[in-house]
Amino acid sequence: MSLQACSIWFVSLAMFGTNLTPVCAEACDTTKFDATPPSAIVGHVNSGSAEFTWASDVDKSTSVSWVWNYILNSHKSSHINVSWPKANIKIPIASPLSPGGIYCNTYPISNTSESEIDDDAPLIYGANNTVQNTAVYKKAEVEKSEINRNRSSITTSYTRNGQTITVSFYANYDVSEGGYISNFELISDSGYYGVVQNISEIWSHEAIDEISSRNTNQIGEFYFIGNEKFGIGDNYLEDWAGWLKESPISKKNETSLVVYGKAIDNINGKISIENAQRDVIILDSNNKPVTTGTITLPVLK
């Protein structure tokens, strides 16, 4: 695998047993895909104007299983926009996947099997909103006892000002005996926002208030915002409003978490009740959506 300018890639099997931290975005290494049973679900589309591979899989190590969804744009010259709701993937037409580019999303789950495949998972692509029938592995909530090392990642690539850019968002934390959290970090690539949707569904208001008041180590921004504030007044988040209102992952009466740069230690020492999956929107420095994905986070009460 080519390491390019980065020192690691997140989804290798060794990652789940080694305490490494991603240092920058890097293209997805599909040679690690479908390393263990159950079998991956893979399809290839070639309509002339678009050519791409879609895939969904669950892989396992001795201590953890994780979902891995990806889209590979194999067309030599055409960009592609994609909406794959059952996989929680949205690649908007304003930031389409580059020719030869790949979108990847991995996150830990509880054990799953072939019986947990959702074969009604339409994928919509291209300027004409062409529908492609697909299947995905269903999301499965993670019990606290199953996973001690939690690693999630979202990576995509798109073209801006003639340059292909790879962008990632990472969520890392460990849970020790007794449920205590350590080594917590959320990382959004430089110049990009990661908006963790509806965090108040899994973090209590008391936990959010405490976390907000902590003097933590971070490079960038880490704060909470009520979803109802998107698009109100002179809030700079208003540029996100139109896209968020069309997205089912944003609920009006909930609170979301915004990460810009690197936030660490924010919830270290707190007790994880269990683990749950959250949806993430990645936006560029102009507040324009780049993509969506899923991460696993601890439940805090």
What distinguishing features does this structure have?
single chain, globular, 2 helices, twelve-stranded antiparallel β-sheet, 18 strands, 301 residues
Structure description:
With 301 residues, the chain is mainly beta. The protein has one domain (13-298). Helix content is 5%, strand content 42%. The chain is built from 2 helices and 18 strands. The chain has helices spanning 205-213, 241-245; strands at residues 41-46, 51-60, 65-73, 82-84, 89-91, 102-109, 117-118, 123-125, 130-132, 136-137, 149-160, 163-175, 181-188, 193-196, 217-226, 255-264, 275-283, 289-298. Strands 1, 2, 3, 6, 11, 12, 13, 14, 15, 16, 17 and 18 form a 12-stranded antiparallel beta sheet that branches. The N and C termini lie far apart (41 Å).
- Give the total of beta strands: 18
Mean pLDDT: 79
By DSSP (H or I, 4+ residues per run), the number of helices equals 2
Which structural class do the helices and strands define? mainly beta
**Beta-strand content:** 35-45%
Using only C-alpha atoms, the radius of gyration works out to 18 Å
Largest sheet: 12 strands, antiparallel
Low-confidence stretches: 1-26, 231-239
| Elements, N to C (H/E) | EEEEEEEEEEEEEEHEHEEE
Please give the alpha-carbon distance between the first and last residues: 41 Å
Q: How much helix is in the residues?
A: under 10%
Q: Tell me the count of domains.
A: 1
